[in-house]
Design goal:
The protein is an alpha+beta fold. It has a single domain, classed as 2-Layer Sandwich (Alpha-Beta Plaits), CATH 3.30.70. Strands 2-3-1-4 form a 4-stranded antiparallel sheet. The protein is globular, with a radius of gyration of 15 Å. It binds 3'-azido-3'-deoxy-thymidine-5'-alpha borano triphosphate (ABT) and magnesium ion (MG). 3'-azido-3'-deoxy-thymidine-5'-alpha borano triphosphate binds next to α4 and β4. It holds the Pfam family NDK. GO terms for molecular function: ATP binding; metal ion binding; nucleoside diphosphate kinase activity. Keywords: ATP-binding, Cytoplasm, Kinase, Magnesium, Metal-binding, Nucleotide metabolism, Nucleotide-binding, Phosphoprotein, Transferase. Belongs to the NDK family.
């Protein structure tokens, strides 16, 4: 079973999309193993987006991510890293397919609603950056035999 880090950004929280977004992942069949509403310190935001530190949009991105509460989550499931990226949709919401979160609810790249880890190394790093071990719950939903053969 694979795990990924997903974070509903401040725009998703402000627009009351928390329930909608969680529902899409739940009904897909994925399992929530960590969840917290939190404000993001500048330090955490800069660590999370360190790969973009030399980009022109970095300062604005840090301002945005620290501007209001986010919902940090760890989800589990087979192939979840790539699958969650598909459910989320393309980085630029105008290019994201309808049916994806960004395609259905977003308009601009700087307000694209949700983050998802982009590979197994970044998923591990991001889970460690955002969650303590004891904040994650390992459990086997009883519905799983109806989701996985
Ligand atoms: P994240 O899931 O937030 O990492 O987005 P994604 O992986 O789809 O896209 P990347 B390239 O990692 O973008 C990170 C954040 O930077 C914002 N951004 C990106 C801009 O504001 N302008 C740009 O030109 C680009 C390329 C979008 C992402 N987050 N927000 N908000
Ligand atoms: Mg990214």
């Amino acid at each position: 079973m694979e795990r990924t880090f997903l974070m509903i950004k401040p725009d998703g929280v402000q627009r009351n999309l928390v329930g909608e977004i969680i529902q899409r992942l739940e009904t897909k069949g994925f399992t929530l193993v960590g969840l917290k509403l939190m404000s993001v310190s500048r330090e955490l935001a800069e660590q999370h987006y360190a790969v973009h530190k030399d980009k022109g949009f970095f300062a604005g991105l840090i301002e945005f991510i620290t501007s209001g509460p986010v919902v940090a989550m760890v989800w589990e499931g087979e192939g979840i890293i790539a699958s969650a990226r598909k459910i989320i949709g393309a980085t630029n919401p105008l290019s994201a397919e309808p049916g994806t979160i960004r395609g259905d609810f977003g308009v601009t790249v700087g307000r694209n609603l949700i983050h998802g880890s982009d590979g197994s190394d970044t998923a591990k790093e991001e889970i460690k950056l955002w969650f303590k071990d004891e904040e994650l719950v390992s459990w086997q939903p009883t519905i799983n035999p109806w989701i996985y053969e």
